[in-house]
Sequence to fold (81 residues):
Amino acid sequence: MQIIEILVGIALLIFAFLAIESKKIINSVIYLSILSMLSVVSFIFMKAPDVAITEAVIGSGLVTAIFIFTLFSIKKVGDKK
Fold:
């Protein structure tokens, strides 16, 4: 079990680095979504299921949807000019 926790921690660091260093914004949003889902797994390992559910709903679902909606809205405004 401890090896899986270490692997999840390493994956968290890798996806955080990818989210920061990605050239395209949509890729950064995808990496952030993956990061949130991995944090859900780590919260489950820390025996905090209520925090995990909240992170899954808000961090991974709602925030990702708002970011993608905002990105598509920005492109639509840019196309009209």
Notes: The chain is about 90% helix and 0% strand.
